[in-house]
Amino acid sequence: IIISLLLLGSLLPHLSFTASVKVGIVNGDKLWPSHSRPYMVSVQKKGKHVCSGFLISDQFAMTAAHCKTKGKLTVVAGTDNLIRRKEHVRIRVMSYYKHKPDLMVLELNERVKLNKKIKTIPIPTGQEKIKVGTMCSVAGWGELTHYGPIRLNLQEANVMIMSDEVCQRQWGKKYNASQMMCVYGEGSSCPVCKQ
Hints:
Mean pLDDT: 77
Shape: globular
Low-confidence stretches: 1-24, 187-195
Strand content: 25-35%
CATH architecture of the largest domain: Beta Barrel
CATH class of the largest domain: Mainly Beta
Structural class: mainly beta
Number of strands: 10
Number of helices: 2
Number of domains: 2
Largest sheet: 6 strands, antiparallel, barrel
């Protein structure tokens, strides 16, 4: 459950009831307490944030497939602030593996040394269906408002799982219940899903 929601938070918080796609944690709040999501990473190109992701092992991270750009990517781990240079670890991406619908696994060119500020995310063992109305939390770096500036601090926001029927009415053929999840929310902080 958590990996799906974190993936949602890292990759899909930009989904709204419009046809456009915009990345960010809209209406999010600064992460508190600091470093409370040690599995989060910033995927970067030439030192600039491209997408949020998370560590799934000491040598692999996961992000969205649409984050792959021309040029070399790096992963920054161990920080919740994109300009704090002394706290983070920067590791080059050796190779990447794209998966449908919009997933990408990044293989790092060296193993990350895990510690209290750098950890892997627990991966669920089965495919559990998350109930409609479940309150969850998403996190990532991005825009606090639509078309606003990128936030330097890791942001988080509360979201609630919507029904497939509501999403289907809003998105039409663009919505695929087997590959997507719809959420809504105003934003604040919530460390885990509550079922």
